[in-house]
């Protein structure tokens, strides 16, 4: 069984306690449907690199997760940003750059590529 203290240390090291937003990107599917596998993986590599370059990953307040499938199986790569619950289409590097700058940093949804939005209910 995993040690909870060790897991908390890992969570702290990747920035969970300081996270303001979390982006999930649909890529590396077992059976690609929303876009070609290579295109999704290129988007993922771009997202990882840019968040690191901008010092937004780790303790920078932005978490990122590679998702096998976000179930909107067309117009991908698909991404979703929480807590706003903003679902985006066509998330190739130029669109991801806009999402990074406008949404992840600036807090404004990128309407041009928005599929839908459903914010999380953050009542405590």
Oligomer: single chain
The separation of the N and C termini measures: 30 Å
Please identify the structural class as seen in this structure.
alpha+beta
Query: Whole-number radius of gyration?
Result: 15 Å
Order of helices and strands: HEHEEEHE
- Shape, please? globular
Spatial order of strands in the largest sheet: 2-1-3-4-5
Q: What are the segments in which pLDDT stays under 50 over at least 5 consecutive residues?
A: none
Q: Helical content, roughly?
A: 25-40%
Q: Helical stretch count?
A: 3
Give the strand content: 15-25%
Report mean pLDDT, rounded to a whole number. 94
- Work out the number of β strands: 5
What composes the largest sheet?
Answer: 5 strands, mixed
